[in-house]
Design brief:
single chain; alpha+beta; 5 helices; 12 strands; 17% helix
């Protein structure tokens, strides 16, 4: 009795001939068992398949962070270090502390110390304090409020936007880990953990 093989088409449109009868034998002897024939069918289909296109996420892989501005300079912080951005809250002054400690804010029942990022980073303000926002940074189980001029939300920086361009950032340069040119501006990846763990930041008493 004449045996007939089966055929299927792979993603490339190429016909894949399955082992069996007069259609078998292209790549060697026909497997005897049904299991072996299925394995041979999978191998043949894999050979004929088109190469897997790289996912967009892979080709656009890079770094992303929360974008913000201090002293006219664009920064971005690791999302895990930046918890939220708030409007400038009402502050209660704290006596006998350095000038960069602006005071305490009551945020949903939690006392949040707020610090002037301009003074911490030695950058001159470029907008009125009434327009500032507070970036809440987390380090371990502690939260810190850091004043910023603007928030730009989540920013994605593809690999090919990374640059060696650096302006003279002065004091803030020690906290910058990389830079990206995007939208005609250079953005600096700022490691907030380094800022809030700096001894100069932790010693607030005068």
């Amino acid at each position: 009795m004449e045996q007939h093989g089966l055929s299927m088409r792979a993603a490339s449109g190429q016909e894949v001939r399955l082992p069996g009868g007069d259609m078998a034998g292209r790549d060697g002897p026909v497997p005897a068992s049904p299991f072996a024939r299925l394995a041979a069918m999978a191998t043949a289909a894999t050979r004929a398949a088109l190469p897997r296109p790289r996912a967009r996420a892979e080709s656009q892989a890079g770094w992303r962070g929360l974008g913000f501005q201090v002293g006219g300079v664009r920064f971005a912080a690791t999302i895990g270090d930046a918890v939220e951005v708030l409007r400038m809250p009402r502050l209660t002054p704290v006596p006998w502390v350095k000038s960069f400690v602006l005071g305490l804010a009551n945020i949903r029942g939690r006392l949040l110390p707020v610090f002037d990022m301009h003074e911490l980073l030695d950058l001159a303000p470029t907008s009125a304090r009434q327009q500032w926002r507070v970036l809440v940074a987390q380090c371990g189980d502690r939260h810190y409020g850091l004043t910023i001029e603007q928030s730009f939300g989540i920013q994605q920086f593809p690999v090919d936007t990374q640059t060696d361009e650096r302006v003279d950032l002065g004091l803030v340069g020690q906290y910058v880990v990389s830079a990206y040119r995007q939208g005609g501006r250079v953005w600096y990846a700022l490691e907030l953990r380094k800022v809030v763990q700096d001894p100069a930041f932790l010693i607030v008493a005068v």
